[in-house]
Amino acid sequence: MVAKAKANKVTEDGIITMYMEYVLEHDSVPRSIYKFCKENKISETDFYSFYRSIEVLQKEIWNKFYANTEALLLKNKEYEVFTNKEKMLTFFYTFFELLTLNRSYVLFALKQNDSPLKNLGQLKGLRQHIKTFAVGLINDANADKNLKITRYNPKVFSEGAWLQFLFVLKFWMEDSSAGFEKTDMAIEKSINTVFDIFDNTPLENILDFGKFLYKETFV
After folding, report:
1. What are the backbone dihedrals phi and psi of residue 48, each rounded to the nearest 5 degrees, phi first?
2. Spatial distance between the Cα atoms of 72 and 76, rounded to a whole number of angstroms
3. Which of 34, 54, 99, 101 is such that its CA lies 20 to 30 A from the CA of 63?
4. Are 68 and 98 in contact (CB under 8 A)?
5. 28 Cβ neighbours under 8 A, 6+ residues apart
6. What does the alpha-carbon distance between residue 125 and residue 78 come to, in Å, rounded to a whole number?
7. How far apart are CA 209 and CA 99, in angstroms?
8. DSSP 3-state percent helix, strand, coil across the chain (nearest 5)
9. Interval 120-131: pLDDT, tens
10. Which residues have CB under 8 Å from 120's CB, separation 6+?
11. For the segment 34-43, what is each residue's pLDDT rounded down to a tens digit?
């Protein structure tokens, strides 16, 4: 009996898996926590021990995407010696590889409501994680700059990183290329552009990015 109880123990990740499978199988969000728990043969007490609502659960899924990405980055022994640009590129590549593994759920989650802003509300916690990640990179870069006037603005850069993420997310959602190779191109070009802007490097890269966006969006 003890062994069986342990095998059936409800976990935080287990509820997330149940939820993701539920919405994909029903093509809808559970109408109530009661019905969700009944179908998955768990108690409401088990559910509420981790999440107080479906909305909180939805946000936590995105937090998990970030946490899993961060864990993968830290497993890479070479990551610590990467430049800031390489760290940002690696983060984006890894994050979107993880999203691709869960593409059906992500597309459902970001299209479940008619209001795009309401759908993006699920990303509130993720937004803070990404901004904090970007601030860390900028603080590292500023540590090597003696003059205050040459230092980057962490607030501006972190907000730019979030807007950049939203752009890539939308691009990825609409990408029909094999292996999402165009998304990889968008990641590379957009991150190169962001760092070019902050490093005051040649305008050609910015123009190249602009041409890429125009071609992929309007042609």
Report:
1. -70, -15
2. 7
3. 34
4. yes
5. none
6. 28
7. 24
8. 80, 0, 20
9. 999 999 999 999
10. 110, 166
11. 999 999 999 9
